[in-house]
Amino acid sequence: MKARRAAAQDRLLRDEKILHNLLSLEMFSAGKRYFVYKSFGSEADTSRLIAELMRGGKEVYLPRTRGKEMQLVRYEGQAFETGAFGISEPTGAESGAVPDVCVLPLLAADAACRRLGYGGGFYDRFLTERGKPALKIGICYDFQIVEEIPAEGHDVPADAIVTDSRIFRRNNTEE
């Protein structure tokens, strides 16, 4: 899936469609505090989403890893540093904020909103603890939707998966 994602020639257009679909969701727009991954490599881009949220007066938090845990750092335009996995992470103090909405990275997902991450369990641990009350939305390109993602008891499903052409909700409805 990583190779397929990296080979997609139309990612910029797909990213615009994901952003449009995400912002059209009333349940997404109702939040005040947003925890958003900082896109890396060929992941669905979050830079425009982060800018739109900030422009709209929303609080934006980005992840930073420390050991096996993920921290929230309020993003207000500060510098980034390279984290343990080569991913840019925000500088600044850890925040104790509880997000209203979490935008999740994924490698693949299915129509039941199960997601396949990268194997570290960072998001599952975070969502089980601090992110439990938050609306959980995974974003990806439509070709990353597969028939079924195997899930274990500790895997936290998303409430919705937003792609460049469809929106899936956990109750198995598609828009």
Rg over CA atoms, rounded to whole Å, is 15 Å
Considering the protein shown, what is the CATH homologous superfamily? Answer: NagB/RpiA/CoA transferase-like
State the strand order across the main sheet: 6-3-2-1-7-10-11-12-13
Oligomer: single chain
Structure description:
The protein has 175 residues and is α/β, with parallel strands linked by helices. The protein has one domain: Rossmann fold (3-Layer(aba) Sandwich). The chain has helices spanning 2-7, 11-23, 26-29, 47-55, 122-128, and strands spanning 33-36, 59-66, 69-74, 80-82, 88-90, 94-95, 101-104, 108-109, 115-116, 135-139, 160-162, 167-169, 173-174. It has a 9-stranded mixed β-sheet with strand order 6-3-2-1-7-10-11-12-13. Strands 4-5 form a two-stranded antiparallel ribbon. Strands 8-9 form a two-stranded antiparallel ribbon. A hairpin with a 5-residue loop joins β8 (108-109) and β9.
What descriptive keywords fit this protein?
single chain; 175 residues; alpha/beta; Rossmann fold; 9-stranded mixed beta sheet; two-stranded antiparallel ribbon; 13 strands
Give me a quick take on this structure.
This protein has 175 residues and is of the alpha/beta class. It is 22% helix and 27% strand.
Indicate the topology.
Blueprint: H1 2-7, H2 11-23, H3 26-29, E1 33-36, H4 47-55, E2 59-66, E3 69-74, E4 80-82, E5 88-90, E6 94-95, E7 101-104, E8 108-109, E9 115-116, H5 122-128, E10 135-139, E11 160-162, E12 167-169, E13 173-174
Parallel strand pairs: 1-2, 1-7, 7-10, 10-11
Antiparallel strand pairs: 2-3, 3-6, 4-5, 8-9, 11-12, 12-13
